[in-house]
Amino acid sequence: MEYPMQFAGGTEKGKRNTAQADRYGTWDLRDSLEPRRLTIVMWDQAFLFRHYPGGSYEDYDRVLDETIERGYNTLRLDPMPNWIDLSTSDTSYEFGGSGSLMPWGGDKPVRGPMGRWTEDFMQKVLKRKLNYTLSAWWLDGGCKPAPIRIPASHTEASGIWLGFLAEWKRHFGFDGCVYVDICNEVPYFMGTLARLKKQFGDAAWDSAAFSPELAAHLAADINGGLRLLRREFPELRFTASLHGDPRWLDVPLELDCQDIHFYTDADPRWTDRTRFGEFMPRFFKDTEWHKEFNERCARAGKAMIPMARARQRDKIRQFAEWGDRRGMPLTTSESWSSWYYIDSPDLDWGWLLEYAEHTVRDALDFRMWGWTPHNYCQPQFANWKNVKWHRKLTSRFLKG
Question: What's the pTM?
Answer without folding.
Answer: 0.94
